[in-house]
Amino acid sequence: MLPITHSPPTDPAWAIEIPAATKRRLGLDDMPSFIVLTEANRFLWPGPDLRLFKTEAGSSVVYGLLPRRLFIEVKDRFVSLARAGQAGFVPRTD
Question: pLDDT (tens digit, 9 = 90+) per residue, 27-43?
Answer without folding.
Answer: 889 999 999 999 998 87
